[in-house]
Amino acid sequence: MEKWRTFFLLSFLSFAIYGLLSLVVADDAAIMNKLAVSLSPAPSDWSGTDPCNWTGVSCDANERITAIGLASKSLTGALPSDLNQLTQLRILDVNNNHITGPLPSLANLTNLQQVYLDSNNFSSVPGSFLTGLISLQTLSLSENSHLEPWSIPLDLAQSSSLVTLYASNANVMGTIPDIFGSLPNLQSLRLSYSNLTGILPPSLKGSYIKNLWLNSQAYGLSGTIDVLGTIAQLSQVWLHANKFSGPIPDLSKSTSLFDLQLRDNQYTGIVPETLMSLPSLQNVTLQNNKLQGPYPQFKSSVNVAIGTNNNFCNQEPGPCDPQVTALLSLAGGFGYPISLSDAWDGNDACQGWSFVTCQGTNVTGINLGMQQLSGTISSAIANFTSLKNLYPNDNNLTGPIPIELTGLTQLQTLDVSNNNLTGIIPDFPASLNLKTSGNPLLGNVFATSGSSTSVSPGLIAGAVTAVVVFLGIASIISYKCYSKKRHQKFGQVHENGKEIQLFEGENAVIPIEVLQRVTDNFSGENILGRGGFGVVYKGKLHDGTQIAVKRMESASMGTKGLREFHAEVSMLRRVKHRHLVAVLGFCINGNERFLIYEFMSQGTLGQHLFKWNENKYPPLTWKERVIIALDVARGLEYLHIFFAQQSFIHRDLKPSNILLGDGMRAKVADFGLVKNTPDEKCSLYTRVAGTFGYLAPEYAATERVTTKVDVYAFGVVLMELITGRKVVDTTVSEEEFHLVTWFRGFLTNKDNIREAIDPTLDPDDETLGNICKVAELADHCTREPSQRPDMVHLVNALSPLVEHWEPTFHEDEEILAINLQRSLSSSFVAMAREIGIAKESLEFRVEHGCN
Ligand SMILES: Nc1ncnc2c1ncn2[C@@H]1O[C@H](COP(=O)(O)OP(=O)(O)OP(=O)(O)O)[C@@H](O)[C@H]1O
Ligand SMILES: *[C@@H]1O[C@H](CO)[C@@H](O)[C@H](O)[C@H]1NC(C)=O
Ligand SMILES: *[C@@H]1O[C@H](CO)[C@@H](O)[C@H](O)[C@H]1NC(C)=O
Ligand SMILES: *[C@@H]1O[C@H](CO)[C@@H](O)[C@H](O)[C@H]1NC(C)=O
Ligand SMILES: *[C@@H]1O[C@H](CO)[C@@H](O)[C@H](O)[C@H]1NC(C)=O
Ligand SMILES: *[C@@H]1O[C@H](CO)[C@@H](O)[C@H](O)[C@H]1NC(C)=O
Ligand SMILES: *[C@@H]1O[C@H](CO)[C@@H](O)[C@H](O)[C@H]1NC(C)=O
Ligand SMILES: [Mg+2]
């Protein structure tokens, strides 16, 4: 009986499954029959019930269609609109026919890898044409010139395997979407002969594109092509017949570049030496641009078209006249605007050049007032020894007034008013007619020392007040922005960050003299501690604010150039959170590097947890410990969520990197310092990441880094908070030696947990319950990576445990970072003055670093 029942049941089931399957197969067949009918002449064997046997068609084991190959068959007709019901389709090739009508939607064809639709006469692109094509590698639909105008859908970002995208002469319009960060495999991008507009998307930066054809757009792409300098794989670049402008970037990374078509655009500036010496270059066109400077000279093996239609100083190779060279440097500071290319053509600046006046053959006046210039004033201006009048007024110039101007003995008038200049006003002779008004950030703090300047003390006071008021207003604005947004979801802080940005920039570079001053010349008494990277000193600013200065020996770092170090620190400085120790600035001096941090008055968690006795601290209460745990969790959560794209994983969380401030509130330190995977070219350190004991096992074994590595380390810290023991304790017996193993032993039997708890805690029953909850979290955090919670979960789990206790922060705390930055900036200025660093050298440092 029983057997028969099973038999019937099984047969029924297999019938049911067969039925379902054949239903699906029938669907594929139905679509294929539609296709056979709608194309003509369909291949002769495209009839009968089993499309799997048709020419050009492939199926999988379940009789599902996987490939349709109908290239070059002189087909007319259309493609059925429900083609995307062939859900197993991997290859669709109808290239080079005469197919008309709308393109079918390919949406949700998750298996589709290769699509060739080029050289047909399709009429339109459907709405969700390219949605959900997660396996797509090739999409080719060039030469469909009668398509209704369409734009590249953002959905294409889902196709992260995409290698080839061809849509030339296919009537693409709009901007090139900024999705290349999601297309890491893209090698060929051809979008020529269409009507694309706008700029090269920033996400092209660092892509692996080899073949880039964007030439001949009806209206024209615009903006600079600077981003090409970051694409090392480039081999063929066609950008001709567009509206690109600005200088040709340094393409020296692109050692495989053999074909560069730049003609018929509006490029300006000097053809870089690095282009002329590119090793693989074969073909270059430069004609019909606004290129300047010396006539370029390529190797004789290079096939080059330069034309006569640029603004080179000569019509054959050779240097330009020195005054012309210097004027070009000046134009370079402004990013080589087109206006200064057309106006400054030829090799004699005194032959009717606009904006320039001469006496004999010497340039004596440069008048660039109200020319909508941006950029900086080049120090090449110092080469005009006969210069009497310089008017770069009423533009949008930034950066400092070049100190070199003080060397121009003939200078009578300098009008820089109404720009956005910063820095210090150089020490000009009193006789100079100097106009600087309308530059809100131009500092005159230094003007007091020189009696020769015409600036009165009253004026200085006024300027200082103005700056202070401005700072005050700015911080109120950012404070308001923040309080309004603090209850919203993540991501808003960037906007807040923008407000802070106002004070960023020059003051991030702190002169070494100032650091020596504030640390008493790095005296032993000011040493806060030593770590893997070097020594940390305490420093005191002139207003009493304390800072921590991490001094790193060259041995602990890679061969970082100043520029990279600067870039990295600028990024760290943007990471601002209540539970992350703020990075305030940096300095490079010879082989030494310095990072300046906010000072944390109560030292490290390690000192309070393991060395409270020798440091004469009271032992931490349980309440303090849970609050610290939550603070740390919040700091890490921020790192993981906000900076996910930059893979901000701490990797070295441990009690010495958890610092305590007033009220024993915790902040995480040293984030962003340790990175070790090869693709992270921008890390500050090359030291092996992490600290023994806190390293997640899978990380130690494979060096694979995910945010779960921090979760593991956090779990270890939780165990340390509960037990008061270091993760690796050489003073105890072997079975207690490794905290994680030892601690997890207790969790199997909760009754014993009291024995594992730090003896200084001596919890009552309620607290014990609370401790057990944290112990459970610690256990979860130290499991297999897939079983570990993420930081968001941990924050949510810890929050209720401190609800009764946690004092709410004052809103003022939010602008702490700004205040700190402000103290540092003003100290920087005041101290530099006190120390008497030469203004010239100080200003130079602000621009170039501190050594
Ligand atoms: N911002 C700060 N405020 C106060 N003290 C600090 C600050 N930063 C570091 N310290 C002190 O300096 C010591 C050394 O810090 P450092 O970061 O160099 O080493 P570490 O944290 O022990 O190890 P690692 O090099 O792995 O980070 C710390 O243990 C701490 O006592
Ligand atoms: C694709 O699939 C999603 C979800 O599976 C569905 O919502 C959407 O309508 C589908 N799109 C098309 C065009 O079939
Ligand atoms: C393509 O289609 C358009 C109409 O959409 C028609 O005018 C044109 O002649 C066709 N071209 C070819 C080559 O068939
Ligand atoms: C190109 O696009 C612009 C709008 O972006 C439009 O004004 C212009 O007519 C288009 N040109 C052609 C030839 O399609
Ligand atoms: C370079 O240009 C010449 C003609 O100007 C052409 O024949 C040749 O194929 C081109 N070479 C490459 C590598 O593009
Ligand atoms: C300025 O003059 C010096 C010396 O004459 C020369 O070396 C330098 O290249 C010139 N700079 C510019 C930008 O013309
Ligand atoms: C031009 O400058 C040179 C030196 O810079 C000077 O010797 C000469 O007299 C100047 N000529 C005129 C006309 O000012
Ligand atoms: Mg540290």
On the 0 to 100 scale, the average pLDDT is 82
Helical content class: 25-40%
Q: Describe the strand arrangement of the main beta sheet, using strand numbers.
A: 2-3-5-6-7-8-10-12-14-16-18-19
Instruction: Provide a count of the helices.
Output: 19
What is the terminal separation in angstroms?
94 Å
Q: What is the architecture of the largest domain at the second tier of CATH? A: Alpha-Beta Horseshoe
Which ligands appear in the coordinates?
A: adenosine-5'-triphosphate, 2-acetamido-2-deoxy-beta-D-glucopyranose, magnesium ion
Q: Could you list the spans in which at least 5 consecutive residues all have pLDDT below 50?
A: 15-24, 444-507, 676-688, 809-814, 838-851
Write down the overall geometry.
flat
Number of strands: 35
Number of domains: 4
The first-level CATH class name of the largest domain: Alpha Beta
Q: Going by CATH, what is the homologous superfamily of the largest domain?
A: Ribonuclease Inhibitor
Q: Pairing-aware structural class of the strands and helices?
A: alpha/beta
CATH fold call of the largest domain: Leucine-rich repeat, LRR (right-handed beta-alpha superhelix)
- Major sheet, described briefly? 12 strands, mixed
- Relative strand content: 5-15%
List its salient traits.
19 helices, 35 strands, membrane, five-stranded mixed β-sheet, binds adenosine-5'-triphosphate, alpha/beta, binds 2-acetamido-2-deoxy-beta-D-glucopyranose, 4 domains, flat, disordered C terminus, 851 residues, Leucine-rich repeat, LRR (right-handed beta-alpha superhelix), binds magnesium ion, Phosphorylase Kinase, domain 1
